[in-house]
Each structure stands twice: as C-alpha cells, then as structure tokens.
Amino acid sequence: MSLPIDSVLLTDLYQLTMLQGYHAQRMNGTAVFEFFVRKLPGGDEPKRNFLVAAGLEQALDFLEGMRFRPDEIEWLRASGRFTPDFVDALAALRFSGDVDAMPEGTVFFPGEPILRVTAPLPEAQLAETRLINLLHFQTLIASKAARMTLAAPGKLLVDFGLRRAHGAEAGLLAARAACLAGFAGTSDVLAGRLWDFPLYGTMAHSFIQAHDDELAAFEHFALAQPDNLVLLIDTYDTEAAAEKLIPLAERLAAKGIRIQGVRLDSGDLAEHARRVRRILDRGGLGQVSIFASGSLDEYLLAAHTAEAVPIDGYGIGTRMDTSSDAPYLDCAYKLQEYAGIPRRKRSEGKATWPGRKQVYRYYDAEGKLQRDSLTLVDDAQPGEPLLRPVMRNGRRLAASPPLQTLRSHAMEQLGRLPEALRRLSPAPAHPVEIAGRLKSLVKAMDGHS
C-alpha cells in the first residue's frame, strides 16, 4: 500500500476536534499564525549560530491543495467522531488565506517568524501540523548543510544521504535542502529529476567484489561509464589500487577514456588521500581528483580544510540527512491574532510576542549582518523587511523560484554573516531587538488579562 502523504488526514487528531469546536461556535474570524524557532539547539552551548529558512515551496504546495477527498469525507463520517454538519463543512474547506514568508535560503535567528498565515481560523488551524512538518525538516537540514558549505570552501559537496534518511520523503527533501544551502548536487535520482539539479554517483564495493579481479572491475566500469569515470579504490588495499590505475590509465587513454576521479570511503581519509595523491601525481595522473565519503560532518570538513588535505570533494550522507548533532529544532506555529485582537501565550518558557510581526535587518558598513529588529507589521522601520508576500486569497503570487535562484540567495546570505557566526564554535548571539511598539503591546495585554 502506497502512503498518501498528500492527504489532509496527515495531521494530528486535535486539529479536527478543535475545528469541530470552532464550527459549533461559528468561529470563522480571521486568524494570524506565525512559524518560528524558539531557540537554537544546544542550550547554553548552541550547536548552531544561525538557521537557514527552507521548505516554503512545499508549504505553499500543501496550502494550495488543502482539501478533503470524497473518500476521506466518507471515512470521517463513518468514524462517528464528528457531527454530520461538521463533516459536510469539511467537504467544502479550501485554503483561502494569505501567506507572508522569508525567501528560502534566508538566514534567521530564534524568535523571528519565517512564515505568517492569515486566514479564517479553521483553515489556518488545520494547516498547523503539516506546515510545521515541512518547514521544520528542511530548515533543519539546510542549516546543517550551510555549516558544511562554510567549513569546506571551494570543495565539491554532494548529498549522499538517501539510504540513511528517515524515509523516502525525508531523503528527497534533504537533498533539496542541501542543494539550496550550497551543495553541488545529489546521488538521489528522483530529486535530480524533480528539481533539476546535478546528479553524482560512482560505484559500490559490491561491484568490485562481484569480480574475481579488482583491475577487471575497474576496466569493466570504465567501459560502462566512459564519460564519467570515478573509481572506488578502497575495497581491499587503497594504495595498491591507486598503483593499478597508472598502467590502466594508459590503456584506457588509448580508447579515449579518461579517469576523472577516485573515491575513498573508509579508514583515515586524510592519510589515504595524501598517499593516493602522491601515487597519482608520480604516475602522471595529477588531473585525477580525489572524492571522499563515509561518516563525514562539518567538523571533519573543517579539520581537512585547516590541514590542506588533498581531497577535492565529499559525499555527505547520514550525519547531514539526520542532522545527527542537532536532530530537531524547538519550533512552533502559534496564534498571534484572532478577529482583529492580538493574542499572546504566556506559558512558562513558551511565551509569545503577539500580533502580526515583521523582521527588519540592518547591515554594517561592510555589508555584514549587524542586528535584527522584531516589530509589528504597521511599525515601519528603515531596515530590510524579511517577510514578503507570497500568497494571497489561497493562490501563489508567483511561481516558486528555481532551486538555483534559491541557492544563489543562500550563498549571498552566508556571505553576509559576520566571521564569528560563520565558525563552528558557539558565537555570541546575533542581536534581535524587540521594538518598543511590540513591548508596549505586551505590557498593555498583560496588564489587562
């Protein structure tokens, strides 16, 4: 049975029970919800200095298609959980609201909304679970991938994580988020087709093991892939395999085939790379690149960069696609206004800033991020407003930008980070000031609650 992940039933039960309550009380006024991250992962020793917004395209896809299918309506009716008139109302439900959001690839910080939904209360409420699901995951992975991009400047970075991702959708969206945040491409064929970004792949150890002779395996693969020949050389003895490539390269050259690269996947990658580089250079194969994979993260990439390890590119898998050091973000999608009245949650440790908000960004003389200001949408400020209109009356204002455009925006954003925020070590928090108008609103609300 295939999994219908596009179903509106892919939600939490309490969304539907709340909607029935709204329906009974005719609560259809305009609601404003905002999605934001409460704090960086890691607490007092944050494992991120910044985050990268991602997932907006899929969020808008969901909202445009948010409706119950006839068979789903009949299932809800037969469940006995809901009143007949409420189920009838669900059959007619469509998203008719507005969305403002930060463009994908935008750097942001805790407390800053990256998406605002303004819609009739039942519509905005029903969207909660899936919007969090989509925005949280891609933002999580894009933020991890951005750190790797910064840790290995000038290196070819490729997403290799599909097989270790937490499910098919996670694998696809991780590839998208990684490429958005600076990766050159992915090994995921379907992701390449869906978003038109480059595909990279070499060979598995099984191809070598299926042959009686390693050199024969290399030759057979060369004949099968004459225009994109990258050989995996660490199945048995890495350096011995590198030596075999020298006479092999001459034979292949006679057939018009050039060895483009070798891949290392185990052991001390740095030391093997140094030895292999010396062997290849000594054999006249200085143009052959070295590509590495296997349990890589930004910390190892940074160490290789500092040590000038002769590795030209990396295939990044498990630790990125699972964001292994910080596998979740403390994020939320909260009601900030209903029926024209600002709303505020005051729960201990989870209080919210009420009202419809905007984030303004300021830069220093060198164009680097200096500070942000969080305020109400009608409190215009001279900085750069980060949330922009993307949907009105349930329809996109424009087609989603191609991934290369989003990637360029993300690279521009990373380039404007101050040096302290670019590092892997914890940095002083980026200043996010709360504007006076917003503070005054909170004071007025708390004094009259």
From TrEMBL:
Q: Name one GO molecular function term.
A: glycosyltransferase activity
Domain named Nicotinate phosphoribosyltransferase C-terminal: residues: 384-440
Q: Which residues form the Nicotinate phosphoribosyltransferase N-terminal domain?
A: 9-135
Q: Which segments constitute the Nicotinate/nicotinamide phosphoribosyltransferase domain?
A: 157-273
Q: Could you say which EC number(s) this protein's record lists?
A: 6.3.4.21
Q: Is Ion transport a UniProt keyword of this protein?
A: no
The alphabetical list of record keywords is: Glycosyltransferase, Ligase, Phosphoprotein, Pyridine nucleotide biosynthesis, Transferase
Q: Which reaction does it catalyse?
A: 5-phospho-alpha-D-ribose 1-diphosphate + nicotinate + ATP + H2O = nicotinate beta-D-ribonucleotide + ADP + phosphate + diphosphate
Sorted alphabetically, the Gene Ontology BP terms of this entry are: NAD+ biosynthetic process via the salvage pathway
Its PTM note reads: Transiently phosphorylated on a His residue during the reaction cycle. Phosphorylation strongly increases the affinity for substrates and increases the rate of nicotinate D-ribonucleotide production. Dephosphorylation regenerates the low-affinity form of the enzyme, leading to product release.
In its keyword annotation, does this UniProt entry include Transcription regulation? no
The pathway this protein participates in, as annotated, is:
Cofactor biosynthesis; NAD(+) biosynthesis; nicotinate D-ribonucleotide from nicotinate: step 1/1
Q: By its UniProt entry, which InterPro entries does this protein fall under?
A: Aldolase_TIM, N/Namide_PRibTrfase, NAPRTase_C, NAPRTase_N, Nic_PRibTrfase-Fam, Nic_PRibTrfase_pncB, Nicotinate_pribotase-like_C
Q: Name one GO cellular component term.
A: cytosol
Gene3D superfamilies, alphabetized: Aldolase class I (3.20.20.70), nicotinate phosphoribosyltransferase (3.20.140.10)
- What does the protein in this record do? Catalyzes the first step in the biosynthesis of NAD from nicotinic acid, the ATP-dependent synthesis of beta-nicotinate D-ribonucleotide from nicotinate and 5-phospho-D-ribose 1-phosphate.
Which family does the entry's similarity section mention?
Answer: Belongs to the NAPRTase family.
Q: In its UniProt entry, what is this protein called?
A: Nicotinate phosphoribosyltransferase
